[in-house]
Design a protein that fits this description.
It is a single chain. The protein is an all-alpha fold. It has 37 helices and two strands. It has a two-stranded antiparallel sheet with strand order 1-2. β1 and β2 form a beta hairpin. α11 runs antiparallel to α12. The radius of gyration is 40 Å and the shape is extended.
Amino acid sequence: MEGEDAFLASLGGDATNDPIETTQPADGDDDDEEDYDPAAPSAPVDAGSLAVPEQPSRSVSRSSQKQTTIGGFVAEESDEDEQEDAQEQTNTDGALALETANTASPNPGALPQSPPAVPVPSQDISSLPVSGDVSSNAHSQSVANGVGVDEAMAGTDTVIEAPVTAPSNGTASASTPIPAERQDLSSAASLPKSRLPNDVVGQLEDRIAEDAKGDVDAWLGLIAHLKARSKFDEVRKVYGRFFEIFPSAGDQWVNYARMELELDDLPRLEAIFNIALLKVQSIDLWNIYLAHIRRRNDIATDTSGQGRQVVSQAYEFVINQVGQDKDSGSLWQDYISFIKSGPGTPGGTGWQDAQKMDLLRKAYQRAVCVPMSAVTSLWKEYDAFEMGLNKMTGRKFLQEKSPAYVTARSSYTALYNITQHLKRGIVPLLPPHPGHQGEEEFLDQADIWQKWIAWEKEDPLVLKDEDAQALQQRILFVYRQAVMALRFYPRIWFDAAQWCYDQNLEADGDSFLDQGLEANPESCLLAFKKADQVERSTSAEEGQDSQVARGKAVRAPYDGVLDHLYKHIELIQRREQTDLAQIEAKYAAMSPDPRDGTPDPAAQEEDDDVVSNTDKPLTKKARKEVEITERRAESLTQTRLTSRVITFVWIALMRAMRRIQGKGKPDDPIPGMRGIFKEARTRGRLMADIHVATALLEHYAYKDPAAPRIFNLGTRLFPEDENVALEHIKFLISTGDSTNARVIFETTVSKITAKPDNVHKARVLFAFFHDWEAKYGELSQVTKIEKRMAELYPDENLASLFAQRFGTVTVAPASFDPCNVLLVLSPSQVRSKSSVQTVIPSIETTEPVPFIPTGYVQSPKRPLEDSDAELPARKLLRGESPLKGAAGRRQQQRQARELGQQSMPSGPKPLPPAVFQLLSVIPPARQWNQTLFDPIKMVDLIRATDMTKARVSSNGGQYGGYGYGR
């Protein structure tokens, strides 16, 4: 009971539930809880654990250099100054600022001068300094049918290595980019030095320092500017910093490799291959790699055949990596052309002839099963190849692969329709906030990736029954491509990891989560998933040490996201102070406004009958105040959003610790739920939700008397928060304490409605208490609440408010609303809108003789009018022989009546009564609120359906479908 008493004492009282009016504020680490501010900044953290030496920015270093003046203006530094600056900044060149060949140290993964006969990977690609995309297990295995990256490239006498400077004093190396969040808050208000218009590099560096993740244009502009000035060493440094933030930007890796290729710097080019090839999986980068391999192994002058073997192994390795890509058509065509260029003639009698024929057949049979743009042309080549060798055996091979080819061809058509607007290889962008610029474009790209993944999961290539592993690899490949383009979109990382776990690919799932958290350290979604996976994969064991170790492992993802969220709040404050200082400086530089400091006559004379002119321009002081107010409001909104995320991360951590370590107690080796609650209050930046969650955990999990005190604490700290008050009222009512529930209601409502801008927040409290009083209270109380609601909310419908006393809040059809009850008191109330015929017309009624206009039947002796000259030839009616006497007159009268009836066009036939009855029973279309079928889209879907694919699917299991990888 000592721990119980200590925890209750920390909440401001003993184990008894004191009345709300007399409960004192809870005590935390301080003696007086009134000093606790939920919006206070986090408590100081040990500086040694977060100390990171500040990286000297370009702006600082450039300002300290000797400036060159031309005509009295400061010009950009010369190339010599840039080189001296680069030598001074030894550790700021990023992971890819490669050392020169003569200063590099030996690398165990170096490229040998001559490739081995059977290449074996000698260096794990994951150990390279730049992190990239998810690599499958096959990437780290020995390549049996191909060649690895290091092994395929013929090396040089010297070796280059990406420098990684180890910290000497336990701090991060200077080459590690320092996030803006870690800068000292004390310098936030200081404005950056103004740049001259010709200092393009300095301006771009300032933009990058301000927003490294978001300002992609500044990165690309800086790279392009330095390239144009031929400052390639500086370009390499910028690329190194760039790829630390955007390691999956495939197009930029390609541009970097092409730059080194144009400079003929092959060692650095090979270092790029070592780092990026298996991580980025870019077709263009793989093509550059193959071109480099063929350049280093000239098959035209190769007499031993070893060079051709290396190139062949390189092609096999590349095909195994990206051969299933929809854009790999040129890669397959180059591979087949390479095989054709080898010695031997298909169809010959020599061993080289037979070997070449087998290689070509194998390559063709694999290629025609891949849905890609070149599949049709490759099939035609394969058809000519087989029929040119032997028509009988050729028809046999073609018949075996024809179903797979037809499936691949139709699948590519469907895949092209899905991905025709997809942008691959671009620099990943941060997701725009809802309602802001770029949101639709970003969501469109994310939707295309999701559709592609869903299309692969539908198994259009019919692989599930015959080669389930190939199907998994295709889906995994698309997920890897998706997370490259949507690196800062946590949802795609979550989906990829979840799919891997569902397929029992635990290693790949963990890799997706780890790399997703590395790219999005502030993502609570990925942190929750990672913690959930750790908790599920670790077994609960007896003993204190086991609980401590398991709790430490589970809370690691929570601690990571919390640290970044607290730093983000500091960044918001720092940006606010900088922006406010810029606003002050901008208006201070303006000429004085004579209207400032003089009273406004309109404001002095304004009374009930005089209104000031709202169109009058604002003074300089007023404009400045407006900008400052708007900027502070924006910062406050961002801070509240971040604080809300922080609160729910603490809640999730608290619930996890309760499952692992139980109730616990503060400042104990096993802190448990209560220790986390105290830690959260110590760091601050909390919303009222954490008090609600903690109190409900205490109540429902342990039936602990601390729950009322935690609710009291939350109500005192957040007196105008309607949510905590509502949950507090619900809790008190559930425990039978209706008296204190009314006290909380009245106190909170009075404080909220005292401010006109907050009146709307009290509506939820009035609605709940009105419903409760109507069911379980006195009529006088109900009437009083309704009167207060009518005064506060004039738009409230009094009839609906009155009916809520007797209604229910359940959904239809169990709901009851007295305002909408309408009984059927008479059959006239349910009469159909359409009149129903009482006599059923006979369907067998004979059709009358069709009416022919009399104007068209003319005498042949009478000439046609000019307007009728182009009409077809008229046919004359053959009349019956006239009857004599009364019989003839009766016949003429009958014919006249028929002609008179037929002269008026008849409308559509009336519907049968049964149809009218059915239409009267069916509800009107306006009452249908479910999904509606779009007939236009349905017709388009049917029109776009490939019936050939449907016929092939019926026997797809017989012929094997997709044959890639066999």
